[in-house]
Amino acid sequence: MKPSNRLRRPFIPTLAAIITRYVSEVSIRKKGAEAERSIARVWLGTRLAGRPIDRIRNTDLIELRDEWLKDKAAATVVRRLAFLSHVFTVLRKDWGWTELANPAQLVRRPSVADSRDRRIFDQIKLRGVSEGECPRNELQWIIQSSRSLEMPTIAVLASETSMRRSEICGIYREHIDLVHGVVKLFNTKNGTSREVPLSPFAKETLRVYLTGKPLRGKVFTMAPGSVTRAFIRARQRAREKYESLCSKYGRRANPSYFIDLRLHDLRHESTSVLATIFDPHDMAKINGQKDLRMVMRYYHPRGRELAQKLARSPRGRRQLATLKAQRLEQRLLRHPMFDIPTNDHTHALK
């Protein structure tokens, strides 16, 4: 038997060793380093962590995929598989393991339905209950239910400016212009700096929050993940308060309120509102999108909003004026003063 010319490696590292190296050398240079560290911890806790990398098969990953899909969202499973796939890609391209196959490429990814059109409910009412006791807006309930000092301000900015969670958490005081109502963002998701206009409500919320705080440095101390967890806790408390209020007045609670609202939905809400003010190109600049199709992904107008916009348009105003004139003419024709005399009556007058 001919001896192989391929150099034999004296040591085959385990998956845990490779992932640890990947996190320290590759993930650390990414904007999503924190998210990748979280995914890495998941892989380090699996039964494959102690296995040599050349003994990991696609069938092993398929078993894990099916286990995760029992209680995890498809998007979560896809992110975990994508992370491992890139680990093997770096192994082969950058770390010299050219003969190693990538088992993650042979695993079918679950389909992800990640498009969302959730808007904030803004007509929460209980008959006979004042607005002070029963806020009309879901976000007002959540802000009042939060125990965090920073999350309410972050939530308001997200719902008013379309900024991403990580962008809000990375704002510096010296980049806020409260005179002109502008926030300058330098550390963005797509790497392009931009200026975001502040609505009067957002500007006043920031002004109140910044009172007595340093004039330089980061505005918020919370990490993006902490903001999401604080939002979830506040949302759950808001739902409990709402159900308690309904029980107090003997009303049936609406099952749709608060249940599936996410922090990222506030960006959808803001985009849907601002899109009625700015044209698509301005909206893309505000949103931080380079593709107008992505702006449309965040735009979810309500039917009644579109109907109001149509009625207020030049076409709608012309049609309303025509209908108003027709109704006036019909009322005048029905008035006794405008009754046309019959021929007999006219002949008698002559």
From TrEMBL:
The keyword DNA-binding applies. The keyword DNA-binding applies. Pfam families: Phage_integrase (PF00589). Residues 125-311 form the Tyr recombinase domain. Keywords: DNA integration, DNA recombination, DNA-binding. It comes from the Bacteria. InterPro entries: DNA_brk_join_enz, Integrase-like_cat_sf, Integrase_catalytic, Integrase_recombinase_N, Tyrosine_recombinase_XerCD. This is Tyrosine-type recombinase/integrase.
